[in-house]
Amino acid sequence: MSAPVLTLAGVGKRFPATPGAERRAWTRQLGRALVGRASRPRAAEDGRVTAVEDVHLTVHRGEAVGVVGLNGAGKTTLLRLAAGHLAPDTGTVSCVGRVGTLMDLTAGLAPALTGREAIPLAGALMGRSRAEMAAAMPFIEDFCGLGAALDRPVGGYSSGMALRLGFAIAAHGDPDLLLIDEVLSVGDFPFRQRCLTRMMEVRERAAVILVSHNLPEVARFCARVVVLAAGRVVFDGPTEDGLAAYRRLAEGAALPTPTAPPEPDATPAFLRPVFRDPARVGPLDLSWRDPAGQAVASRPFGAPLILRLRATLAAPARALSVGVPLYAPDGTRVTGLASDLTMPPRPARAGTTVTVTLTLPAPCLNPGPWHGVAVLHDGPGTLARQPLPPLTITGGPSRHWGVVTPDAAWRVDASK
Asked: What is the pTM of this model?
């Protein structure tokens, strides 16, 4: 896995509970910094409210992490610390590269400026030059879809219009880390889908952290979820398990025991989990082959394609079958092939080397990289689940849309 883009180590943040205390604390801290004296805690700070406490979080390039929790759990404070908008009271925050934020719809959008005038200003706050923002301007204008409204003052924008412009700037700012806090909820459905699509594109080269109460969107976009409760990380792991933990919290269950962050894994999230029962089966030998039996890593569009699986059983099996789900480059599951749909499962003795061949006479997969998983079953149980070797489809139609181009016969009549 790539080096971390964001690392939080033992991070904590507290806020004064009384009005005006934060300004006084900031003034004292600034004064001591100007005279070169170290800051020291004061007894009056005992009344401060803890927002986040002892947070450890590492996010890598290519990851999309959902952050969920009940109101007041510390989600927004966590993002503001990650963005550098707040300094931690304890621990350290390390971020590599540019940070794009979408936490405040009006951030960088001065009300007196037009939308078009606000774009370079908001880009400058992200660390981008005027030339870079000028190059991105056509994409931002097209994505936000505001048309003539870009020449009107931002102060007259609705929350949905501000979201459109703010997201377009943040997502086209070439960030290494994109932080999004709930604001997608004010967008209409078509624009939210465009935002999710764009976030998937950003995820390919950057890291994304999404705070949201919209659990279906978190489940669709994030392969990992962090659950916050009372300022602490109480879960960090696979999305399905994380959302289940959040639902238990929402129903009033006791706080779960904090979990350790998952070990780094180079396998794309949509191909996990990788599994094998060594007491029952040896490693799977998987390969893509051409009709002559030669191993291949690429095939021309429409050319016959063969997948071969070999494995040696360490224990007898009663009903062997194989499933092969195929995924497009963005992780969309395109299809799932299963041997037991066309032939009955078969038994096999221990020590047997099983060879399974899947032939696709004329696959319709569009050009590009393809992914898949081979799952070896014994009845309803799973013996092994392993990603397929890389496969690239080359050539193909000069114009193609989506992920497959099925065989089709056309007929056009123009007779009177």
From this structure: 0.54
